[in-house]
């Protein structure tokens, strides 16, 4: 066996002579072997976030083995432990909380096998992240998340755009502001891009033509302006698109119709106008369509009646409220058997309510038609009102009534809405050859219908005698 050891030593010497490198110093305290520099980098990184009083070498002498640290995961490379996942912040009860005077130490960027990095509720005081060191993680990092860090008040570091192996970038509810860096367009391996709940401004980059694998795009709750980029239509794998609560304007791009796999489209609370895109009904996979609080009905042609709603049979939630929509309620909406929520309130809709058809929808659990100019009589049964409870609203329709008063509906019982008009002419009496034209008009009340009709007929008989 001695000759094998000799050969191994000669190999190490030869490797050192050729490459100028030596074998990394390995620590083995009775647990799994780990490169000393890797473990020290881990300890220093955590200490920067948790505080100088934290002594990892005493508390967690084997952080990837017998004494693991909450939020740290490791994997083996060449029979040695390396950190692959690092979550900093109080995610769980036994997680290490971040101190208010935290410091991002350069050792963080020496964890060369790091694949996932998350900061959760760490940066509470105003903090600016350095731009220089992120490139060091570019060879392996696949997931980067900043969640609930109100102290991050700078622009998003442009060097994050160099992390070309990222599959998930989540920047959720922080204080990031300014425009998005243009090189974010190079992250074409992304499957999830969430930038919601920040203070981003400017236009949304029109560079999504290379994002063929993106499944989730959430840019909601920012201050983005301009139009919705046309290149969004090229993200053919997209399942969720949420750009709600921004300042977007212009028309809906027809390219939305190319998103054949989309299940959620949320554009609420923007300034999008120009009517509904007639390509929306081509996205037959949609389960959630939320377009409320957009002035789409302010044009002469809002397109609501032209959309073939009956083709969107997978819809579960449909919110078209506060859009200025006009015309009748499209009959195609009554064909959506999976529909649970329908919001048509606060528009300028007219005509009758297809009550019987809506009542037959098996899954409908919330219907809001209040704040319109609908007319006629609601034909819902008492059972329907009991089922819906406060999830049905029809108030603020001046010409809409119901047979019986129901609580929480906000409508009065119908009175005088049904008019029977009969015209009598050329009625001759036996005693006279003259004709008498009689026109009887009667408003049928909800109570006493037969008595009123009998009195009216008796009056006619007396005239004819």
Question: How do the helices and strands line up, and which of them pair or pack?
Answer:
Elements: H1 2-19, E1 26-27, E2 34-35, H2 36-50, H3 56-59, E3 72-77, E4 80-88, E5 116-120, E6 143-149, E7 168-174, E8 177-178, E9 192-194, E10 199-200, E11 216-218, E12 225-226, E13 240-242, E14 247-250, E15 264-266, E16 271-272, E17 288-290, E18 317-319, E19 326-327, E20 341-343, E21 348-351, H4 355-359, E22 366-368, E23 373-378, H5 382-388, E24 392-393, E25 399-402, E26 419-428, E27 435-443, H6 449-464
Parallel strand pairs: 4-5, 5-6, 6-7, 7-9, 8-10, 9-11, 11-13, 12-14, 13-15, 14-16, 15-17, 17-18, 18-20, 19-21, 20-22, 21-23, 22-24, 23-25
Antiparallel strand pairs: 1-2, 3-4, 26-27
Describe the protein in words:
The protein is of the alpha/beta class. It folds into 2 domains: 26-402, Ribonuclease Inhibitor (Leucine-rich repeat, LRR (right-handed beta-alpha superhelix), Alpha-Beta Horseshoe), CATH 3.80.10.10; 419-464, no CATH class. It has helices at 2-19, 36-50, 56-59, 355-359, 382-388, 449-464; strands spanning 26-27, 34-35, 72-77, 80-88, 116-120, 143-149, 168-174, 177-178, 192-194, 199-200, 216-218, 225-226, 240-242, 247-250, 264-266, 271-272, 288-290, 317-319, 326-327, 341-343, 348-351, 366-368, 373-378, 392-393, 399-402, 419-428, 435-443. The strands form 6 sheets. A 14-stranded mixed beta sheet has the order 3-4-5-6-7-9-11-13-15-17-18-20-22-24, with helices on one face. The radius of gyration is 35 Å and the shape is elongated.
């Amino acid at each position: 066996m001695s000759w094998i050891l000799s050969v191994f030593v000669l190999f190490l010497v030869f490797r050192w002579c050729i490459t100028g490198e030596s074998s990394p110093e390995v620590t083995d305290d009775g647990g799994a072997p780990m490169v000393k520099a890797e473990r020290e980098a881990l300890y220093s990184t955590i200490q920067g976030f948790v505080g100088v009083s934290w002594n990892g070498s005493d508390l967690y002498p084997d952080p990837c083995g017998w004494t693991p640290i909450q939020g740290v995961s490791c994997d083996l490379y060449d029979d040695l432990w390396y950190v692959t996942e690092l979550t900093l912040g109080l995610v769980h009860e036994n997680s290490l909380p971040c101190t208010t005077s935290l410091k991002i130490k350069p050792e963080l960027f020496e964890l060369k096998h790091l694949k996932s990095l998350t900061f959760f509720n760490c940066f509470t005081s105003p903090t600016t992240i350095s731009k220089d060191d992120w490139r060091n993680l570019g060879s392996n990092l696949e997931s980067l998340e900043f969640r609930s860090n109100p102290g991050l008040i700078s622009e998003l570091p442009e060097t994050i755009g160099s992390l070309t192996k990222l599959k998930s970038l989540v920047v959720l509810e922080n204080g990031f502001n300014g425009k998005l860096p243009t090189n974010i367009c190079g992250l074409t391996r992304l499957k999830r891009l969430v930038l919601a709940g920040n203070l981003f401004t400017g236009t949304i980059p029109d560079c999504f033509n290379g994002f063929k694998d993106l499944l989730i795009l959430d840019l909601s709750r920012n201050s983005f302006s301009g139009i919705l980029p046309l290149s969004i239509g090229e993200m053919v794998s997209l399942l969720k698109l949420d750009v709600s609560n921004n300042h977007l304007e212009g028309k809906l791009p027809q390219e939305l119709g190319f998103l054949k796999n989309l299940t959620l489209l949320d554009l609420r609370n923007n300034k999008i106008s120009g009517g509904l895109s007639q390509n929306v009904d081509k996205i037959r996979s949609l389960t959630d369509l939320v377009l409320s609080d957009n002035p789409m009905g302010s044009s002469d042609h809002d397109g609501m009646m032209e959309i073939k709603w009956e083709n969107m049979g997978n819809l579960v939630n449909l919110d078209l409220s506060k859009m200025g929509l006009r015309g009748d309620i499209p009959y195609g909406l009554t064909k959506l058997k999976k529909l649970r929520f329908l919001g048509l309130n606060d528009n300028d809709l007219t005509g009758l309510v297809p009550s019987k058809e809506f009542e037959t929808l098996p899954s409908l659990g919330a219907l809001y038609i209040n704040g319109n100019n609908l007319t006629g009589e609601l034909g819902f049964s008492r059972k329907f009102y009991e089922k819906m409870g406060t999830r049905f609203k029809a108030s603020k329709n001046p010409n809409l009534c119901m047979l019986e008063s129901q609580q929480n509906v906000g409508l009065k019982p119908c009175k005088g809405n049904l008019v029977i008009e009969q015209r009598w002419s050329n009625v001759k009496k036996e005693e006279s050859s003259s004709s008498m034209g009689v026109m009887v008009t009667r408003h049928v009340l909800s109570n006493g219908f037969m008595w009123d009709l009998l009195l009216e007929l008796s009056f006619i008989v007396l005239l004819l005698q």
